[in-house]
Amino acid sequence: MAELARVRTSFVEKVSKDMIKQLLDDLLEDGVLNEGEKDSIIEENMTTKDKARALIDSVKKKGNVASRKMIAHLQTRDATLYATLDSIQVFQRSGALHTQTVPSISTPVPGSLRTWSDSTHLLMDQELFRVRRTFVEKVSKDMIKQLLDDLLQDGVLNEGEKDSIIETNLTTKDKARDLIDLVKRKGNVPSSKMIAHLKDRDNCLFSELGLKDQPKDVPSTKPIQTSGATGKEKPDNRDIYPVSEDSMRSRVALLITNIKFTDEKMNRNGAEKDEENMENLLKSLNYEVVKHSNLTGKEIDHSLVEFSKHPKLKQTDSVVVVIMSHGKLGAILGKDWKRLDENPDEFPINDIYKHLGSHNCPALLDKPKIIIIQACRGDGEGSVLVSDGPNTAEVCDEEENIEEDAVQCVNKEKDFIALLSCTPDTLSYRDTYSGSFLISYMFEECKKAAHQLHIEELFRKVMRRFELDFKIWNLRQMPTKERCTLTRNFFFFPPSSDEFHSFTSQSQTCSRD
What would be the CATH architecture of the domain defined by 245-504? Predict the structure, then answer.
């Protein structure tokens, strides 16, 4: 729209940070912007002027209807700024601002609250979206605290989410925005619970928002449940970590694989397949994969620190961290490791739990943190096999494509579970062409049963594969689950079984030559 183009420079110079937030809320509620666009404008632009440029440019590109909506909201929100832009004749048509009546975009006009009698099929998360702006304007700080306590007790929010809303937002309005947006993203049932608590706590505000009790014929959208082979749904109770469609869309995983080393004798042949297998598996389970290869110890540490600040952690239901490299007792070796260095290139395994624990990463409090590490804890035995320790590799004549890995790590934080590739003081094995057996078996078992089984049972299935299928020469290997502190069952709840099988069957990365 021409008016926005003409006013752009003055708007960027004069608009305040608070006004940008209010306009973003208005345009989100109108359907002009979506959540991703709003977050992008806020998070990707450091200064107020940069945010203003991104906002006005984004709306302008959407055309006349969107532009007129922004003009109307600007006039309502800040008549002084609106008049200032008018007075310098950059926002004029024939001496007056061009504020034509704006057609509706399937959203009720602000202030005209729709009741259940108008649309009995409306879902409760849509009701929260409808009253969002008024709720933010009118709810008190004490009411927000009471609602947070109620929703925590219901299991709608966890401790980390509650603390994040309180601690990361300075103003009452920001806390209100964060609360209602988070509950809305969790779906119909959590939204219904928030509305019910709001009625119990403040019936005046409940009525002022135009909310009504949930009618019996309104469909309920429960947290995702998938049917297993028996056709029975998984129970929806507090013994299961909560998962919703929105939390699944926010899943994120960290994948670090050291393959090439400064000392070429330490190169981990076949580890490319492990990296490919694990990336495919994580993506099929709806995780965005943050991937790094060939890092030093300091770079591994930095990648974990950055991962602990990932913007999706606040909304995700879980994280997975996979690190594959050479190792020694208590440490992962970086790509520049040398045997006699005074300051060896290493990353302490315990720092994983420090970086992702509740103190440094409150966004992951009460959420499953799945750790998988493939690395030696020492030189071990089996001198005729290639080892994932720092020693020079030796190849076995009988099984020349088999290499050995071992792993050990310690976790002390709640809601962690670690899968180690072998028992202490023993070796694990890796095919130099198709990768480690641990990753191969995990890929295959998740393909078959991730839509049915919780994470501990999936790990047990992987362990059982080593008992039944690992028949290589006179070698033996048994993975272990280490210090599991999960207090509930965690289900990946991936896409439907047919869709999941279709995805994974396209890749044969776990096949053996």
Answer: 3-Layer(aba) Sandwich (3.40)
Residue 355, amino acid: H
Residue 118 makes CB contacts below 8 A (sequence gap 6+) with none
Contacts of 181 (CB under 8 A, 6+ apart): 35, 132
- Give the integer Cα–Cα distance in Å for 367 and 362: 10
Catalytic positions are 326, 376
Q: Where are the beta strands (DSSP E) in 139-269?
A: 252-257
- 185, 315 contact by CB (below 8 A): yes
Contacts of 149 (CB under 8 A, 6+ apart): none
Q: Angle of helix 271-284 relative to helix 497-504, nearest 10 degrees?
A: 160
How far apart are the C-alpha atoms of 277 and 270, rounded to whole Å?
11
> Which residues of 80-175 form beta strands (DSSP E)?
92-93, 96-97
The CATH code belonging to domain 2-97 is 1.10.533.10
Name the one residue in this structure whose structure tokens are 């305040």: 16
CA distance 72 to 198: 31
If you count them, how many residues does the chain have? Answer: 513
Helices first, then strands: H and E counts in the chain: 19, 15
Return the percent helix, strand and coil in the chain, to nearest 5. 45, 10, 45
d(C-alpha 24, C-alpha 133), whole Å: 11
Structure confidence by residue, pLDDT tens digits, 44-82: 888 888 899 899 988 888 888 888 888 888 888 887 787
Report residue 429: phi and psi, to 5°: -125, 150
The reported pLDDT for the residue numbered 400 is 53
- Output the pLDDT for position 275: 93
CA 235 – CA 225 distance, rounded (Å): 8
What is the three-class DSSP state of 225? coil
pLDDT reported for residue 381 = 39
- Per DSSP bridges, beta strands 416-420 and 480-482 are antiparallel
**Collapsing DSSP states into helix, strand and coil, what is residue 372?**
strand
| Two tokens, residue 340 | 């006699």
Q: Does domain 124-208 have CATH number 1.10.533.10?
A: yes
Q: Where are the CATH 1.10.533.10 domain residues in the chain?
A: 2-97, 124-208
Q: At 176, list the tokens.
A: 């209100």
Q: Which residues make up the CATH 3.40.50.1460 domain(s) of the chain?
A: 245-504
Nearest to 322, CA basis, from 431, 436, 429, 412: 436
Count of Cβ atoms closer than 10 Å to residue 37 Cβ: 18
Determine the Cα–Cα distance for residues 407 and 81; give it in Å rounded to an integer: 63
The reported pTM is: 0.51
- Please report the sign of the dihedral spanned by the C-alpha atoms of residue 15, residue 21, residue 24, residue 29: negative
Helix, strand, or coil here: 393? coil
